[in-house]
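anyone seen this seq b4? input:
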Amino acid sequence: MTLRMQGLENGALFGFACSAFDLFFTRDAGFAHNVRQSPAPPTLKLIRVIIAQQPQEAFVLEFLVAFRATNWSRWEHGSDWP
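predicted toks r here
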C-alpha cells in the first residue's frame, strides 16, 4: 500500500508508522538513515527498499517475489532490503 504522504514531516511520518504498522517500507534513504539513528521502536520494523527504479508493474512484481521469499524475523529495523 502506498500512503502517498509526500510533504509530511519525517518525525510525524515515523510516529504514524510506529502507531499503525508492524512493518513499514520506504525508498527514502535519508528517512531510513534518520530512523537508524534512534533506538528501534518495540512494535515496528522500518525497512528501506533498494530494488532498482523501474516501471511500476515490474517493481511491484519484483517486490512481491522478494517479499514472499523473505523470512522477516531475520531482518532488523532500518535494514536495506532485499
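The CA atoms of residues 55 and 67 lie 18 Å apart. DSSP finds three helices and three strands in the chain. kinda curious what u guys think
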